[in-house]
From TrEMBL:
Gene3D superfamilies in alphabetical order: Zinc/RING finger domain, C3HC4 (zinc finger) (3.30.40.10)
Sorted UniProt keywords: Coiled coil
InterPro entries attached to this UniProt entry: Znf_FYVE_PHD, Znf_RING/FYVE/PHD
Keyword Coiled coil: yes
Chain segments annotated as coiled-coil in the UniProt record: 72-99
Protein name in UniProt: FYVE-type domain-containing protein
Length: 103
């Protein structure tokens, strides 16, 4: 297996593993090509680790999802306001039509 970034070759034996697979896309990266601290590297080398590893590409995607979710919430709020305005205008138009029919 080789690092997806620098193309260094790692070992397949878990005890000497120098490459880490991204938990999202399964691409392999060596410790030198990640922003992982020495203690994070030690945890990533454990057979039963609880630390999730995202490669640099997936980290950007995860961050983008947060931004996109925020934008969706904002647009949903705007959509709700516009629906209310349309409803109010429709009701006002119906009231105007009723008044005009009486005359």
């Amino acid at each position: 297996m080789e690092c997806s970034k620098c193309k260094k070759v790692g070992f397949s034996k878990p005890s000497s593993r120098t490459l880490f697979e991204c938990d999202q896309c399964n691409a392999a990266f060596c410790a030198d090509c990640t922003d992982s601290s020495a203690s994070e590297v030690e945890v990533l080398q454990l057979q039963r680790r609880k630390l999730i590893f995202y490669c640099p590409n997936c980290v950007h995607l995860v961050n983008d999802v947060g931004v996109l979710m925020s934008q969706v919430r904002e647009l949903t709020g705007i959509n709700d306001l516009l629906r209310k305005e349309i409803e109010d205008l429709t009701n006002a138009n119906l009231d105007t039509e009723k008044i005009l029919k009486r005359k």
